[in-house]
Amino acid sequence: MKIIVCMKQVPLSSKVEIDEETGNLKRMGAATRTNPFDLFALECALRIRDQIGGTVTVLTMGPQQTETMIRDAYMMGADDAVILSDRKFAGSDVLATSYTLSRGIRLLGGADLIICGRQTTDGDTAQIGPAIAEHLHLPHAAWVNAITDVNEKRIQVRQDLASVFQISEMKYPCLITVDKDICVPRLPSYRRKAEAAAKPIRMVSCQDLPDPDMTRFGLVGSPTTVERIFPPPAGAGSVTLEGTAAEKAGQLFDLLAAAKYF
Amino acid sequence: MPYPYKKMDEQDFAYIRSVTDPSRVWVGEAIAKEFYHDEMPEYGVFPPELYVEVLTKEEVSAIMKYAYGQNIPVVARGAGTGLAGGANCKYGGIMLSLMKMNKIFPVDTQNMTVTAQPGALISEVAAAAAEVGLFYPPDPGEKTASIGGSIITNAGGMRAVRYGVTRDYVRCIEAVMPNGDIVHFSSNVVKNTTGFDVKDLVVGSEGILCVCTEVTLKLIPAPNCTCTLVIPFDSLEKCIDCVPVLLRLPFVPTAVEFLERELIDIVERNLHKLLPVREGAAVLIVMYDASSREELTQCCDAAAAAALEAGALDVALADTPERIGSVWSVRAAILEGMKADSVGQEECDVVVPRSRIAEFVKAAKSICLSHGVVVEPCGHAGDGNIHTEMLRQPGMTDEEWKSATHACLVELYAKSKELGGQLSGEHGIGNGRLEFLKPFIGDEMYQLYRNIKLAFDPKLILNPGKMITFD
């Protein structure tokens, strides 16, 4: 059983400066973490591997500093990892990113199961997973909030589609994107720290990829035009709550209590 | 009736309305039950004759002066989140709510202090400090607790290991004495040997000496980053034995908590909250704060190496807000989990020398087992404060539960004393532990407590029947 988990390193804080000219996040120097949704993806992969055997490979696209995220994934129990890193990948939108990741998966000889987090906390599109599947012509299920059955041949998942739950069963190879709270991700283990620090990470550049069509990578391969990007005005007029309905209700209660409405 | 208090009449009600406002005064049946018990109603639900919300120290003073003259008992109340049965009116009289006195004055960045009225919430005071990059560390964990209540009960909490308890942060107190006099205990100074430092006596006095109307609190520079380690062990003994190992390191942890697997399972079973570490019969949860990422990494690396050397099965690292939240949300859910897992609870809040924690926990289990009571000890391994929670199972009659828990408590307190501990670490005496205090501290000390009470309140009108009695 060969499982690939697509992960991304994102800023630690949601308060990240944005370059208003290019529309890109100013990542340099900012503290980072693994995209929280991807930790659920990795945990699902590790559990499936522990249950039916196989390997878990982490695949990411990003700069050299992404290595810290990979070491963290190794401390959680990932078997190996590949970083797709090349200046030519810079400025990728959903289409170019998903294409690049799909080439990376092809370079690795494909996988039985590809797992992504539902979305990232910086891009927030929730489209990368399904787009990878489309590039690879694979069946996929997004927004999975439970893996109801899994064996060497197929996986059965439950999707939360807002008004209905859908149970789907797919033969491998296939791709799923998992919602947060599908499980509780394990924490990185100090027992694995020394081993994780010494473990090799495969660095892959543009020219290493199969069929590199240079018009499909990075800014050149990104048809999305960002007209303008700016942080939402942080005025006193609006507060955005995040989380599940229950979490948001709790936050709303706290806000009203803080404002002494109760 | 042990005290010959006056029963309040219409004239008394009219007077209180005249010095406050009729819209802030409730009488008799109009007083909601929520306003005359705390979070342990098992320790007493006693209605006042009059409930008043005050807005100024002058109102407090006028009420106290009148009550003192008329011999009417008065109980001052904050948010009602206490755990000792303190905020209720055992002998009727006036319940004086300070929750509308909730101003927080601008932070004094020169002196690094903040001044607040008693009804401000601890979380609001902490937020005001954080806005200017400062930190108010005491955090008993209850988000709705008032700053006044936390001072008058000397609230502790998990961060006591590194930062100490509420008393360590009180610079000065403005208070109203039982006779209505407005007094100031100390001033905004760092040290003081001007005779007795009475403020330290007022902190933790459970509302029996005076009514706090304003407090000035020390603030410290805020740490920049935080991290939590979860350290599983195959036995409770190894888990507790690791605590001094961690405390001897050159890095002081902010919090050191221990949890046994049974308790983790209770939270999982009842609230579906899962600890991200599945192994171990017992775990230590250790928090470190630091001023830089590098320092934090050094703390965690040193602690992890020491713990593994001391027999830990592993050391798991929670280094992002989500991971830290996934650990502490389980710790925070314990009380709720135990409430869901039982039909009633009784609690023992002893503090023992840190070296005796494992011994006490073992003894507590065996004591409670011998009386047929299910028990789940947990708590602050870093400071020796152990919350021994007794859980009532369905099928126990009221009488069986009462007599079994009473027998357990008598033995648990005796054990704490034998080990060099104290009766209560952070919840206080109130009404709930009243009968256990005298045998614990002895007649001589009890008389000293009484004399202190009489020096402040010779007519015994302030929160009578709590902490000490004169029967």
Note down, in words, how this protein is organized.
The complex is a heterodimer of chains A (262) and B (471). With 262 residues, chain A is of the alpha/beta class. Chain A has a single domain (2-226), classed as HUPs (Rossmann fold). Chain A has six helices and eleven strands. In chain A, strands 9-8-7-10-6-1-4-5-11 form a nine-stranded mixed sheet, with helices on both faces. In chain A, strands 2-3 form a two-stranded antiparallel ribbon. Chain B is of the alpha+beta class and 471 residues long. Chain B has a seven-stranded antiparallel sheet, with helices on both faces. In chain B, a hairpin with a 5-residue loop joins β7 (170-176) and β8. Chain B starts with 9 loop residues before the first helix and ends in a 15-residue tail after the last helix. Classes of the chains: A alpha/beta (262), B alpha+beta (471). Chain A binds chain B through residues 12, 31, 33-34, 36, 39, 75, 184-191, 193, 254, 257-258, 260, and chain B through 102, 121, 123-124, 143-144, 230, 274-278, 293, 304, 308, 314-320, 322-323, 326-327.
Task: Explain the layout of strands and helices.
The complex is a heterodimer of chains A (262) and B (471).
Chain A: E1 2-7, E2 9-11, E3 32-34, H1 36-52, E4 55-61, H2 67-76, E5 80-84, H3 94-107, E6 113-117, H4 128-136, E7 140-150, E8 154-161, E9 164-171, E10 174-178, H5 193-198, E11 202-204, H6 245-258
Parallel strand pairs in A: 1-4, 1-6, 4-5, 5-11, 6-10, 7-10
Antiparallel strand pairs in A: 2-3, 7-8, 8-9
Helix pairs in contact in A: 3-4
Chain B: H1 10-19, E1 25-27, E2 50-53, H2 57-70, E3 74-77, E4 94-97, E5 113-116, H3 122-131, E6 134-135, H4 147-152, H5 160-163, E7 170-176, E8 182-185, H6 199-202, E9 211-218, E10 220-221, E11 225-233, H7 236-247, E12 255-260, H8 261-271, E13 282-290, H9 293-309, E14 316-318, H10 321-332, H11 334-340, E15 344-348, H12 357-370, E16 374-380, E17 385-392, H13 398-418, H14 434-441, H15 443-456
Parallel strand pairs in B: 2-4, 3-4
Antiparallel strand pairs in B: 1-2, 5-9, 6-10, 7-8, 7-9, 11-13, 11-14, 12-13, 12-16, 15-17, 16-17
Helix pairs in contact in B: 8-11, 12-13, 14-15
